Amino acid sequence: MSTLAAEYEQMTEEERKAKDQDDRALETEEQAALPYRWTQLLGEVDVHVPVPKGTRGRDLSIVIQKKKLSIGLKASQDKILDGELCKEIKVEDSTWTLEDDVVLVHLEKLNQQQWWENVVTHHPKIDTTKIEPTDSKLGDLDGETRGMVEKMMFDNQQKQMGKPTSDELKKMEALKKFQAAHPELDFSNAKIS
Asked: Which of 6, 40, 61, 151 could form a disulfide with 45 if both were Cys (CB 3.0 to 4.6 A apart)?
């Protein structure tokens, strides 16, 4: 455990709330100072970069690579955003558009089970442990994912009640069928794992 984590553990509930509030205020201030806004879901990051009024797509110089993002104006040497991405992206699924003097960059995360601390590595980080994902409904998921989530929920509920999980139930059912098909075998001393 790091010294900061140990210090946090030693704090009273009120001290923790005050520290969390101070940390959030500093994080908000740091993020507001960036030349862009960004949001994320587990699988994607969206970056909104303001550009001068009247900017057109052909005026922009945009580079989206597996670990790099660069946005600037062709007429200027200075980049609005330029750096190494904190995590890798799927380049072929990442896009950009220009709407109302804002460049909208959509980045598909390579690892879709991980929150990003920042967009580019040299910018201030956010505390990913404090992220509260938006509510999603089982109906929003595709069939295979929904089935997996429902199975996990069922298995978790069964474990909490001390009952067998879905995999254990399948094994028990298969054993019962095998025993019924082979009554001549004696399973009285068998240990099944």
From this structure: 40
